[in-house]
Amino acid sequence: MSKGGEAVYIPDDSDFNTFRDQCESQEGWNRQYNKAGVMVWSQAQEESHTVQKIKMQITCRDVLPETLYDVLHDTCYRKKWDSNMIETYDIGRLTVNTDVGYYSWRCPSPLKNRDFVTLRSWLPLGKDYMIINYSVKHPKYPPRKDFVRAVSLQTGYLIKAAGNRGSILYYLTQVDPRGSLPKWVVNKVSQYVAPKAMKKIYKAGLKYPEWKRKHNPGFKPWVYPEQNTLPSISLAELSLQHAESLENIDESSLTEDRARISDEEA
């Protein structure tokens, strides 16, 4: 996602427009799943070694777009609904709508758990909202021995209004998990894990207004930048996270019969 190939930069309007176009376009996407209001597509890349893109869409009735936007930003609430998450926190801010953060998540056993450091930007456009990120390196947050550092080439959400009180949520991701994953893992992601993840966000959106009323209801630094108390960081502190500089874990020989993907993990 970086411009010029190497420099860390803050996404601009053209990046958000390109992301929106990818979410809404059908051209070049192969539908993998369509059930109960959830659709999943994949996009094979021209070069065989390039990581494939996955795109998901779910219709969220009775959840306002601004509510989903809050759900995806609110790290305190994320601990309530994202059972895959091990840890997440914000590291620092670059601008009023760009920050750097850390996220680690559980992978289905017997795979190793993964983590990210990403630069994230967000943009409200009327009733539509976008959040996009890509992986960066921060000198104070190097790869850890207990995780495989994964690389987000581009990941994000597009939230659109649908009807009077509903939303359509798109999630698009191109992530290098740093590891030669077995084919069954890739299949499970599109057929099982991805749809479940989208349904979790929908359920989280339904419950968020009531939860937020009891948990610091006026605190939304992603909406009110003056509430943001994160330390300022500069682009000069960051560099692009190149996948090839990270350890590559070969997990391709792990068999599916050892995998445990429960409703909680998926």
From TrEMBL:
Major site of localization recorded for this protein: other
Keyword check for Transcription regulation: no
Keywords (A to Z) from UniProt: Acetylation, Cell projection, Cilium, Cytoplasm, Flagellum, Lipid transport, Lipid-binding, Membrane, Phosphoprotein, Transport
Entry's localization field: Cell projection, Cilium, Flagellum; Cytoplasm; Membrane
CDD domains for the chain: START_STARD10-like
GO molecular function, one term: lipid binding
GO process terms (BP): lipid transport
Domain START intervals: 25-210
One Gene Ontology CC term in the entry: cytosol
InterPro entries: STARD10_START, START-like_dom_sf, START_lipid-bd_dom, START_lipid_transfer
Keyword Phosphoprotein: yes
Protein name: START domain-containing protein 10
